[in-house]
Queue: 4 jobs
Job 1
Amino acid sequence: MVSNVYAQHKADPSASERRNMVKFNILPLLGGKFAFEYERLLTNRIALGAGLSIRPEKGLPFASTVKGFVDEEELDNILDDFKSSNFSFTPEVRFYTSRRGPFRGFYVAPYAKFVSYKLAVPYQFDVDIEEQGNEVYSRSETIPLKGNLSSVTAGLSVGFNFKLKNNFHLDWRLFGPGYGTAKGDITGTMKLDADEQSELKDALADLKTNLEDMPLAVKIDYDVHGEGATITVKRSPWSSIRTGLGISYRF
């Protein structure tokens, strides 16, 4: 009987039941993003997790990287004025390698990331009117474009989970590159006369060519009419990079 009591004390049933962990990721705060995660042990070395993040309206992520691919002033101006907000959901499976216990040590984690973006960008185009080869007038117009974009990426994260004190842990995600695609629709509402429609069509045709000439081509279609324009992003390469430093609580 004494042996049974001692064994129960050593096993600490309450500890074995603490198979859940919630986390607040500190690192994304530097970019204005709020990120929360949850993790559930399946075995002592395998866990299933999910992350949610919210990003208020900011500039386009990785805009400088995209601008580095093409030396085109028109495209650079679009990327500079591009604003977006997003909401993401990221499920993952973690495989821990340490034998020191659950939620401890080095891990690898394949993941999928689903992101919904809301975006806005003012698009400027020139209206040049000529008669018999002579310029009558020239002006610039700006059409406000707004829309939604969704992306799906998949990748692999690596990191360490350290036990701090009691039920608190530090989750350090070192690096987690991912790659996938994005698509969506962007619309602009604006009264356009025949000349403005013609010039906007020419500008969007040039934009389409520039995007398709990029090393990682972006495929778009467009429609211009008297009430504005619609741009459909049919396929765009998309990347994700997961890093993090999370304060975790095990329960």
Job 2
Amino acid sequence: MLEQYRTVYEGGEGEITEKKSRFIATVHPVESEEEALVFLEEMKKKYWDARHNCYVYSIGMNREFTRCSDDGEPSGTAGRPMLDVILGEDIYNVAVVVTRYFGGVLLGTGGLVRAYSKAVQEGLAASKVILKQKGIALKITTDYTGLGKIQYIAGERNIPVLDSEYTDKVVMKLLVPVQDVGSVQKAITEGTNGRAGIEKDQELYYAVIDGKVITFDH
């Protein structure tokens, strides 16, 4: 399991024109190879009249399902350059189709590589790409004298508070990056003189999107 990874939260569409040929890149988040194949079929139907619908997808934390296709373009001029952009941007669980409407002018091998690469970059620029981080939800139980110290530690370290419950005691759920769990536990224990109860509640991924913390199960 990766401690953090980049992925597409919302897909988008980008377009470039090279010597009268249109290159339309459609980006889509996918969680399985089946989802990727359904997306490819949808794009082929949408752009049925295009000369080429080249594609790439990369799925899994070890990129277990990674495929690319030149779809009739000269070998190595479309699918592989598209994959190189995905790998270079370090994006996981994504599928991209670049549709080409031929403009009557041959671009040559180098021209095709540049065009398909640039189209993918435009598609990603039009998408919402996020950084998912692996975190541990820590359940903190404390009395009211320890509350201020815990709030200070969370604020100082930009740790999201998922939930708070106030009764005769306070129960807070903090979302801590997995690599910081040890140091946060230590800081809370020392800050409350050992009076706070700390237990690991669950492991999840999260991302900050438009200023809000969104959690994911993977």
Job 3
Amino acid sequence: MRVRNKPWAKDFIKDHSEYIVDNPEQWKGKWSNRFNKNQPIHVEIGTGKGQFIVEMAREHPEINFLGIEIQETVIAIALKKVVASELPNLQMVHTDGAGIDTFFDEHEIDTIYLNFSDPWPKKRHAKRRLTSPKFLDSYKKVLKKDAPIVFKTDNRGLFEYSIITFNNYGMYFDLLSLDLHNSEYMEDNIETEYEHKFSAKGPIYKVIAYFNKNKED
């Protein structure tokens, strides 16, 4: 997602530090301290303008949510929604989603969401895809052993690539939809801004995958 720089973004982020972190390494293993309650932590990598994570936090007060976004203007737009919502179970993280094992402890996270990530379609950029083996290595470290990756995209190439990398990594599939918006799984679906705008132009693909089948693995 690319948007024009907003001159107000930097000051807005600075003025609302109670809802946003720009030094994530200092919170490694202590993310629960950012919230009023010690609850499961769900993370969205590439949160965009925030519609998905705000609605998730509103519908699931029993879960703490963290939204990661690198672009300053984009996260400032999302932060406006977060501040307006006044939800105690929602925080933003202004950083790159690469190497999340540097700012999350082992098995600290209960779910990771990857929504409409940049497909990086050129072969030479494959390592930048958020479902590449390098990223899966990081996710496996920070996710609890029975925790899922929830992945949505409208890009067929990225979807096929992700299914292959998940499978090659030995992951287990709990859900695989080739057309989410015309499936039984739509009832609980919360849309991103991008999804709401572009779903009419083609199918939305969704996968829920685990590194382990269950807690006993």
Job 4
Amino acid sequence: MIEEIYKRRSIRHFLQKPIAQEDLDEILTAATWAPSEKNEQPWKFIIIRGEERKAMVKCLKKGIMRNRKGDETAIFSKGYDKFIPSAIYTARVLEQAPVIVFVVNTKGMDYRQSYPSDKYMMELADIQSISAAIQNMCLEATARNIGSLWTCNIFFAYDELKEWLHADGEMVAAIALGYTDKEIKAMPRKPLAEVVEYRGEYPQPKDEVQEAAEAE
């Protein structure tokens, strides 16, 4: 799987070539084998294909425009308007992708409400579980030479899309799937020395400790 980890890319150009049902089933099965807190498996996958993509993109664009105009009901404040162009571009990408998978946290809590800290912590645990499922999905797609785009730009139209999906729970992300003829170069990664901090060391085996003492 290390090869797929290195090969995975965020794809933003898709060919109009359908994904075989067998491949899609295996990608989704891989998602369901992710670890989850207390084995709750809080995920649900809603698959958008064909003409349904147009209705989905229409909802997405409506939400983006609501945020762009600074509507009082908009989710994002004015400081986030710099991300609007990226969201518009994502809408175009999702419109061309043959398959879009909406991932829903079936135990998710309404983001507009306030909750006790313990419920919030459990929400974080569920989102971690769902994120692992999404990563499995992207890696299995890569293994089958299918491109993927994991995006949260759908949040600009959270309310519109949630109403359109009409599913219990809260949206976590959308994943576009499809074939591409574009070669995408890997983005640079921070070196381990910058992101890893070691604390403590493995205890030495007794024979090594004894050898060290004798050497002294």
